[in-house]
Design brief:
By secondary structure, the chain is α+β, with helices and mostly antiparallel strands. The protein contains 18 helices and 27 strands. Strands 1-2-3-4-6-5 form a 6-stranded antiparallel sheet. Strands 7-8-9 form a 3-stranded antiparallel sheet.
Length: 649
């Protein structure tokens, strides 16, 4: 996208560090700019959230949380997140800058990709996505626009988790249509996303790379969503017959309507892709190697086949030349002696073998009849699919029965435990119960805002959840040690007033440190000491006049940054210069009453002979002089001495 001359961000210095150079792209949630990090002297991409979204505190909280999640990922196939912050009312995210194009740009230019190109890109994306899934992060918005192809050949995934923070009201119709094209059936019907939802989106992207088009199209997003929820994605080879069947099967597996029938995460799909890659490339190499006009002669020795240069159809010199040396005469006596010795050794060995077989047969009968061999050890089946676990037990002569169990560590649909457990010995024909994970057990959190930290922690742990991060901030409206707000760590959902969650998951708390102390009127040293007791730093700032605060004392303390105040933050102290000086006006020669009024209105205090105010004189006398004299400066509120004229001359 070309730079807009009216864009006020071009040339702006953000947070005193990032100099905005040009605009790269604009989306429904934010605009991305190319900027220079002046501190580290490198180019970065800075994503700035749109102003109308910045007013939504819940949205900003999700923006920050997802940025922290993405920053935890360090992988060659994931765009690095360097920094996140807020400048004035502007939330921003600083990322690695990758000059290049997106996968969407590549598809627009080339239509469709070869099988090998598709597998190369898919492998890189799955590698980065596997690292994210291992860290418990679900992308939620995989599409060609979020796959970056750098000029130096690197392939990276961007925009991790940020799509979850955008609702339909903030997306344009085109942006919504682009996202709908990759939504899994469970997201369309139930609004639930996990690692298998990312796999579905990746399957749709693979179909698009192979065929050059999306499997479902429609004039309205709802039409496309309906097809995702109700139709089966066709095999790519129905559009392009030359696509290998192995890639057909990979796409069908990834885009199964039932999440249980898909790979459980990116690592599982990546392992399968590596096997497919070998088969497809080997098949391609075999076809390329066929030369229709070449006739290969048979019977080549291994030595000839391994030679650097071969002449087909010519026998090796050693085999082509007949030996002219007559063979030696055989020594019959020695040969007979040697045969007798071999037969004798063979007899000893046969006898020994018979004895060993007899002993082995007896031991085997005891072992499997009444010894330990009559029992079968239960294999380790945790994390296996019920079908695979049942197959393993059947091969061991055991029966399987299914049960259910909630689990916060084993994905739903996989075996969470067995009864009896692994390594336990069961009689042949016995039954092993496979407890299939139902995922984490649902729980309902109580109202947490307003509780003391210990009470909130107990309420969370009593439900077998746990406290994740605790953010302590100063808040004059909430008592110290009291919970201000709470959110789910998994998706930043607000649970301050309670709400649904799952057993074993973490809850983040924001806790009050109490109000910021009032240091107005204190000396700089006293104010600094008071703030230091609260864990806050102070530094002298602006000096200004004050009629009420003595010179050298603190007028007010202001936080150096925006947003919540935390321990370690710095406050700027505004210092009083005392009352503002006022120039004494010239009232000499004016009537006594007029001169007094002018000086009093300017805030001066007056001293004079009270007798001058007597009615009989006040209309006759004038101001004879002032001390300080007219034209000099005196602090506002200071005293001026007035001298009246003598009414009698």
């Amino acid at each position: 996208m070309s730079d807009s001359p009216a864009d006020p961000m071009i040339g702006r210095l953000i947070d005193g560090r990032y100099q905005v150079r040009s605009r790269i792209a604009r989306g429904g949630m934010a605009t991305v700019y190319l900027a220079t990090d002046l501190r580290l002297e490198r180019r970065v991409a800075i994503k700035i959230m749109h102003g109308h979204l910045a007013d939504d505190n819940a949205f900003k909280a999700r923006f920050v949380q997802e940025a922290r999640s993405a920053a935890r990922l360090a992988h060659p196939n994931v765009v690095n997140v360097y920094d996140q912050g807020q400048d004035a009312d502007m939330a921003y995210l600083v990322m690695e800058y990758l000059p290049g194009i997106t996968l969407r740009d590549l598809l627009k230019d080339y239509g469709r990709l070869t099988s090998e190109q598709t597998m190369d890109i898919l492998g890189a994306v799955l590698s980065g996505l596997a690292a994210a899934h291992k860290a418990g992060i679900v992308h939620r918005d995989l599409k060609p626009e979020n796959v970056l192809l750098a000029d130096d050949g690197r392939i990276k995934i961007g925009d991790f988790g940020l799509a979850r923070a955008v609702n339909n009201n903030t997306a344009t119709g085109q942006a919504l249509l682009g996202t709908i094209a990759y939504l899994s059936p469970e997201l369309v019907t139930r609004g639930i996303a996990d690692a298998r939802s990312d796999i579905y989106a990746l399957g749709i992207m693979t179909y698009e790379m192979l065929t050059g088009e999306q499997p479902y199209v429609g004039e309205a997003p709802m039409q496309i969503a309906y097809q995702h929820a109700n139709d089966t994605v066709p095999m790519p080879s129905t559009r392009v017959p030359t696509i290998p069947p192995e890639l057909d099967e990979l796409v069908s597996w990834a885009t199964a309507r039932d999440p249980e029938n898909r790979p459980r995460d990116a690592r599982v799909m990546l392992d399968q892709l590596q096997d497919v890659d070998k088969i497809v490339r080997a098949s391609s190499a075999d076809q390329t190697a066929l030369q229709p006009t070449m006739i290969l002669s048979t019977g080549l020795s291994s030595a000839v086949a391994d030679a650097a240069t071969q002449i087909l159809g010519v026998k090796p010199l050693a085999t082509a030349t007949k030996s002219k040396t007559p063979p030696p005469k055989p020594d019959n006596a020695a040969r007979l002696t040697d045969n007798a010795r071999k037969r004798k050794r063979k007899g000893y060995w046969l006898f020994t073998l018979v004895m060993l077989l007899a002993a082995l047969a007896g031991g085997t009968g005891w072992y499997f009849g009444s010894g330990p061999g009559s029992l079968v050890a239960v294999p380790q089946l945790v994390s296996a699919s019920p079908e695979d676990a049942t197959s393993q037990l059947t091969k061991l002569g055991l029966k399987a029965t299914l049960g259910t169990q909630y689990s916060g560590t084993i994905a739903a649909g996989l075996v969470a435990s067995t009864e009896p457990g692994a390594a336990a010995r069961v009689a042949k024909g016995g039954t092993v119960t496979l407890r299939v994970s139902q995922g984490p057990q649902p729980i309902t959190l109580p109202v947490l805002a307003g509780l003391a930290t210990d009470a909130a922690t107990k309420a969370i742990t009593d439900l077998k959840a746990s406290v994740g991060g605790t953010d302590s901030v100063f808040n004059g409206d909430v008592a110290a040690g009291t919970v201000i707000s709470a959110s789910r760590e998994s998706d930043s959902g607000d649970v301050s007033q309670g709400g649904g969650y799952f057993e074993g998951m973490k809850v983040n708390l924001v806790v009050s440190l109490g109000g910021i102390p009032d240091v107005a009127g204190k000396s700089v040293d006293d104010a600094t000491a008071v703030l230091k007791e609260k864990g806050l730093a102070a530094k002298s700032g602006e000096q200004t006049y004050s009629d009420s605060i003595p010179e050298g004392h603190v007028i007010k303390a202001s936080a150096a940054g925006d947003g919540p105040v935390r321990v370690g933050d710095t406050f700027n102290l505004t210092i009083s210069r005392g009352p503002e000086p006022v120039v004494v006006p010239d009232v000499v020669g004016r009537s006594w009453g007029e001169g007094k009024k002018i000086l009093s209105d300017l805030g001066f205090k007056l001293t004079y002979n009270p007798g001058a105010d007597a009615p009989v004189y006040s209309s006759l006398i004038q101001v004879a002089s002032t001390d300080p004299a007219a034209g000099t400066s005196a602090p506002k509120g200071s005293t001026i001495t007035l001298k009246p004229t003598n009414p009698f001359g």
